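Researcher: Dear colleague, please comment on this protein.
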Amino acid sequence: MALAAVVPTVSGCGLLGGLTKRLGAPESMTVTSPAFRSETFPLQYTCHGAGLSPPLHWSGAFSAQPKSFAIVVDDGQAPITPKIYWIVFAISPSTTDIAQNQLPTGARQALNSAGTARYDPPCPTGADVATIRLTVYALNSSLSRLPRQPSLRAAWTAIARHVIATGRLTVKAKQ
């Protein structure tokens, strides 16, 4: 039920939904990964492989200095939309990447759609193809007021309120 309440806020333009009118359009960032040599999500980052969290790198020129970064990994085309695999926040503003299967020092994780505060690897079955979106948000807040492991909705709402820049890498995952 809580996820259904989040969907109108985050559908359409991704996490921001209808908030862009109030905040203005966020600046753009570039998001890349050394693990994705094509538009296919490598098996090792799914439940069919090792289930590792993927490495990411981001960059951008910001008109306002970010206070922190956040990462949301989701599938906007899942039967229950959106399916959130991972939310990482409180990433230091001096950090520009996240290593495979590691969190940057001080970063925290929110609950995902499975109800766990960790990376929940995508698990497409049969001929299903998942569209995995790896989105990095530059924030004008450190989100330090969030509880230790906030709910998906609390983290998502807090991130959406503080976005100053965003970038996304989209890949396809299959069995």
In short: Helices lie at 2-10, 20-23, 152-161. The chain has a mean pLDDT of 86. The chain has three helices and nine strands.
